[in-house]
Every structure is written in structure tokens, then in C-alpha cells.
Specification:
single chain, 168 residues, RNA binding, SpoIIIJ-associated protein
Length: 168
Amino acid sequence: MTEGTTPAEGVDTLSRLEQEGEIAADYLEGLLDIADLDGDIDMDVEADRAAVSIISDSTSRDLQKLVGRDGEVLEALQELTRLAVHRETGDRSRLMLDVAGFRARKRTELSELGGKAAEEAKDSGQPVKLEPMTPFERKVVHDAVAAAGLRSESEGEEPERRVVVLPA
């Protein structure tokens, strides 16, 4: 429950996010059927947003088709899933989608990158500019930099928007 919410509001928010996850899961199940891909849907609520993952037991690389090069297909699929949720609920969704653990692995890599950039900024006393990133990637790096005790900001325009880590 977030600060400033009553217990009833917290339950309402959880219920709404679970509903988003259910709608997304139904949409994605249909997509998997149409594409003739094997995968199981896992739903959760993380950091005040619905989180849905498509996972597979098989060793086949079929699900990689839903990730695409550097997650481009995954980003598009996430937006389509958010639109499906919006169509059903009338509310904008912040749902996060992962396929075959791609985002989980990316989150680990980006956390390490943010930590290294924070160390570099501390050691050099100079701002450290990173390569352009997606909003998801920037958020993970900002969180890692904050955890390291430094500040960061985003600069530039999409698709060239990047994180700048500021020295203490």
C-alpha cells in the first residue's frame, strides 16, 4: 500500500492491477495461439504496476521472435497489450511485459552499468554520459545510480535520450 492511501484504496489498487494482469494474460494467450507459440503466462504486481511474463519450458527459441532485436518487438508487444487493457478498462495501463526473461536479464545488466557509471562519476568528479536508452532502461539505471548515493538525470530527445550520472 502506498503512503496516503487507506486500506480500502490499497485493496482497490491491487484488485485493479490484478484485473489488468488478467486482461493482459487473456490477450497474450490469444496471441500465442494465433502465432502457434508455446508459452506460459505468469502474472504479478510489482512496484504499483501489473507485471506479466511469457515463459517457456522448452529449449526452443520460438519466444525470441517476441523479443526481437534488442527488445524492439517486446516493446511493441507491450504497447499492444497495454492498449488491449485500456480497451477493456478505459484506464491507461503501466503494465510491464517480459518475454523469456529478456527484461529480467536486461535489468541486471543495466543495474550493473548504473553502478559502474556512479563509481566513475565519484572517482572522476565529472558527469558520466551513457548511450541512448529506452524509458525502461533509463529507469533501471536511474534507480541503480540512486542506490549508489548519486543523482542522475535524462537529457536529449527520443530516441537519443540518455542518462547523465552526476558526481556528488
